[in-house]
Structures are given as structure tokens and as C-alpha cells.
Amino acid sequence: MDKVVAAHNDLHSEQGALRGEHPGRSRNPVIKVHDLAWLEFEKPDLAAAETFAQAFGFQTAARTADELQLRGTDAGAPCVLVRRGNRTRFRGLAFTAQDDLDVHRLAQAHRAPTQALPESLGVWRSS
Predict the structure, then answer these.
(1) Which secondary structure element, helix H or strand E, spans residue 114, and what is its range?
(2) Which of 106, 93, 92 is nearest to 32 (CA)?
(3) CA 17 to chain CA mean position, Å
(4) What is the CA radius of gyration of the chain?
(5) Of 18-32, 38-52, 60-74, which range is least confident?
(6) Main-chain phi, psi angles of 47, to 5 degrees
(7) Which are the contacts of 83, defined by CB distance < 8 A and separation ≥ 6?
(8) pTM of structure
(9) What is the pLDDT, as a whole number, of residue 74?
(10) Which stretches of the chain are DSSP H helices?
């Protein structure tokens, strides 16, 4: 029988986690992530980033001198934020929590303040 080639082939070690690798899911998570909210990048040239993104089907949701918010074909919140920076780099990602209580619980666990997000992005952010 032929081996089926798929995206997840050879991603998992037969020996399990190796020494020093991330152990996987927390046994006692502070919150359970509901969904991926957006990806964040820095780019020196926002106009070039916008042109590039539009060539791949992204639409500009909002644009300022220092930030570009992109969304896919569905209406709604942006899925990519590009901020002006000295060099091109991936800054991180944001997740949505199930509700406001989860955001506040996570912020408290990390002793971080919460702040309101711009309306185009959501409600709360823990910094």
C-alpha cells in the first residue's frame, strides 16, 4: 500500500517530546483561547506592504501613517496588523478569549493591565 502524503506527515517524533522542547498543553491553563485574532508585523514601507497584501487578496480595513490593518474577504475585524518599523519582522499574534472575564483573569495572572482596543480590533487587550 502506498504511503499517503499529507501536511502533517513527519511532524511528530516517534519518541515523543525531546529534552528541552515545549511540553505541550498546560495541565492547568489560565484561560482557553477561543480563536486566533490577528498577526502583527513591522515593515519600514507600509505602502509597499499594502500593495503586496492586496496582490494576495487582502483588503485594507484601515490605514494611518504608522499602521495598516488588513482583512481577508470576509467583512469584520482585521486579521493582519502591519506597523511602521525600522526593519521587516514578525511581532507576534493575538488571540480572542471566550469573554471579558477570561481577559481580566489572564491579565491578573500575569500582573498586566488591560486597556481598551480600537473599535476596529475588539474590546480589551492585556499588555
Answers:
(1) strand 114-116
(2) 106
(3) 25
(4) 19
(5) 18-32
(6) -65, -45
(7) 40, 41, 42, 43, 66, 67, 68, 91
(8) 0.67
(9) 78
(10) 46-55, 100-109
